[in-house]
Specification:
By secondary structure, the protein is an alpha/beta fold. The chain has helices spanning about 25-35, 70-75, 75-80, 100-105, 125-135, 170-175, 185-195, 215-235, 240, 245-270, 275-305, 305-335, and strands at about 15-20, 45-50, 60, 85-90, 95, 110-115, 120, 155, 165-170, 200-205, 210.
Amino acid sequence: MTDDRIFLKIQTMKYSFIIPVKEINDYIREAIPNILQIERADYEIIIYPDEINSESWPKTRQIATGHIGPAQKRNLALQDASGEFLIFIDDDAYPEKNILEILDVDFQDEKISAIGGPAITPKDDSYFQKVSGAFFLSSFSGGFPERYVPKGKKKEIQDWPTVNLTIRKDTFQKIGGFNSEFWPGEDTELCLQIIKNGGKIIYDPQVQVFHHRREGLWRHLKQVGGYGIHRGFFAKKYPATSFKFIYFIPSTFFVFALLFPIVLILYLLNSYIFDWILGLFLLGWCAYFFALIISFLQILYYEKNVLISLYALIYIFLGHLWYGFRFIQGLAFTKELRSKLR
């Protein structure tokens, strides 16, 4: 397959699916046929691997990028995409078949610059992938369950991840694309620039994609930790979107959990001055475990599986600690962040 761009804009499309990837992988091989189930002629699919291979699909182009970050790959859509609307989606995700019909209706409002929707765990994901997905279904753990399950009504938002974010191409051009030094987190900066330039971003629960989750606890924690360090860094770099109380809660819990053994040891050494302090800590643990019970019920409401909901509580506890630590690292100790595809 050629990488020549000369012939690539023969037909103007309404939508362009933009998929950055390190290399053509099994997720892409699943995603493209699912996208192609959309029975319309007004869309194209552009995949940006480091290097192209001989595989091909209808409506689809591979364009080699060399070894650059995902935000830089997405920025190439400014020169390559012919669509009026750019649908940013990850390689391990694929859309619901009616997504373009929903976007057609939403973008009739010319004030809307971008639209985000939920990224739902596929039913055929493995057991522990579902546990990883369940982590995000509680408002106590992920913080924003509407990002992972259709929830609520359409509403205006300030920040949305690029696993399911569609933006007008002229808006994308106006703001100059992504700030390519960040990933994950480039979407936060992008959304901030949209709003600063007078744009409007909405959440529509019907604009749905299916997103495979991380397999196993370590890969899940690695993902959550990546979110943590970037959000901590962004809290000081982009306080308008990231310096919010909700993002500091896991770090507060991390410090709380770190201090508890010290308080307990001092109490056991008969330092009675710590009696009331220990009481406060025990009260804090009671509040935390009560929140875990609420989380279990919330997850069970969506998952309808007791064991997945119980396993998710382990992921939540460890995820809070690791996110909290990494958030502090990003906030206090990280001077620069660089993007790379994992």
